[in-house]
Amino acid sequence: MRPTDLFSGTSVNPPGTGSENCLRIGTRLDDYEITGILGEGGFGIVYIAFDHALQRSVAIKEYMPGALAARAGDQSVAVRAARHQDTFNVGLKSFINEARFLAQFDHPSLVKVHRFWEQNQTAYTAMRYYDGRTIKDIVAHNPELVTDAWCRQVMRQILEALEMLYTMNILHRDVSPDNIIVQENGEAVLLDFGSARQIIGDMTRGLTVILKPGYAPIEQYSGDASLAQGAWTDIYALASLMYFAIVKEAPATSIARMVKDPTTPLAERAPAGFGADLLAAIDKGMAVLPQDRPQSIDAFRAMLGIVVAPSQRPRAGAAMQRAPSARSVEAKPEPSAGAAPQAAPARPA
C-alpha cells in the first residue's frame, strides 16, 4: 500500500522520512502524536498521527510554504525574510478559512475535517485518515483498475461532492488527479481546495503556482471577470481528469487548446471497453469554451446517464463563489501556541 497523499501537489515520502522542515516523529500536538510523514509539498506537510484522546489514526496537515518559511529550532515556523511576512500571513488565514469551511460538511465524498488550530506560528488541520490512493497514483501504478464502471462511479461520487459544495455557493476550482483519493472500498473523496496555494499565487502573480496545467479551464487563466466561472469550471477539470485516467496522458492546457487544439477527442480515440456515451460526455465536459460545456451538474449527469433521486439531492444554493480564501472569509482567532485546540465550528450541510 502506497501512502495516501492528502495535500494536493505533495510528493509522498515513505513513513518516517522527510526534509528538515518536517516535525520529528514523536512530536506531540495537543492530543496528537506524529507517527509518520505522508507527504510534503510546496505549501504544506501531511503527517499521520495518533489521536490519544479518541484512540484513532488521523491525518494532520501543516501549513508550511517552503519558499516563504522554514522550521526553526523550537519547532515553530518562521519566514525566511521580513518581506515574505504579509504573504505568509494571508496564506495562513486562507488555510484556516478552508479548514473552517470544510468542517461544516459530513459527506462521504468530501474530506472530513475534525478540528483545526494555530500552534508553532503556523496552523494545523486534523482530518480523517483515508486508506486509499490518489487517481494520479492509480493511473501510474494500476491503470488496469480504470474501467468504464470505475470512471462512472468516481464521477458520480465527485459530482455529489461538488453539488454539496454548491449548496454553500462555493466552487472547488482545484479538481485534479492528485486531489481525489479512491479508497479500498471504491469510494472516491475530493480533497482540499489548495486555498493557501491559490492565494499565495495570486499575491505573487504566479499562474504556474495557482493552476494545474491540463485541468484548469480557460476562464481560470483570465484573471478577471471577463469569463465567468461556474459549475462548468469544475466540470471541465473533472472531465479532463477522466480523460487522463482513460488515455494515461494529461490533455493539453486550455490556453494551447484555444490556439490549435492538439487533444484528440475520446470519441475519436474510441478506447476499448468504454461506452460511447461516457466518452462523448467527457469530450463535452472538456469543451474549451465555457458555453459549450454542460452548464450544471444535472446537465452533466444527464449526459452520463446518472439518475439521482430527489430525496438524495442537497438543497441548491444561489450565485456561485470561488473557494474560500483570506479575501472571501474573515478568519476568527484560533487558540495560540500551547493552547488546546478547539473543535472546529460545524453546522448541518
CATH class of the largest domain: Mainly Alpha
**CATH homology superfamily name of the largest domain:** Transferase(Phosphotransferase) domain 1
Radius of gyration: 20 Å
Q: Please, what is the average pLDDT?
A: 83
User: Which fold name is given in CATH as the topology of the largest domain?
Assistant: Transferase(Phosphotransferase), domain 1
What kind of sheet is the major sheet?
A: 7 strands, antiparallel
Helical amount among residues, as a percent range? 25-40%
Number of domains: 2
List the total number of helices.
11
Gross CATH architecture of the largest domain:
Orthogonal Bundle
Beta-strand proportion:
15-25%
What is the 3D form? globular
Q: What class, by secondary structure content?
A: alpha+beta
* Total E-strand runs: 12
Characterize this entry briefly.
The chain is an alpha+beta fold.
Task: Describe the secondary-structure layout.
Layout: E1 11-12, E2 28-29, E3 32-40, E4 44-51, E5 56-63, E6 69-71, E7 77-79, H1 85-102, E8 113-119, E9 122-128, E10 132-134, H2 135-141, H3 148-166, E11 180-183, E12 188-190, H4 195-204, H5 207-210, H6 218-221, H7 231-247, H8 254-259, H9 266-269, H10 276-285, H11 297-304
Helix pairs in contact: 1-4, 3-7, 7-10
Description:
With 349 residues, the chain is of the alpha+beta class. The chain has two domains: 11-128, Phosphorylase Kinase, domain 1; 132-312, Transferase(Phosphotransferase) domain 1 (Transferase(Phosphotransferase), domain 1). 31% of the residues lie in helices and 17% in strands. Strands 1, 2, 3, 4, 5, 8 and 9 form a seven-stranded antiparallel sheet that branches. A hairpin with a 3-residue loop joins β3 and β4 (44-51). α3 (148-166) runs antiparallel to α7 (231-247) and α7 packs across α10 (276-285). The longest helix has 19 residues, at 148-166. The protein is globular. The two termini are 33 Å apart. The model is unreliable at 1-16 and 325-349 (pLDDT under 50).
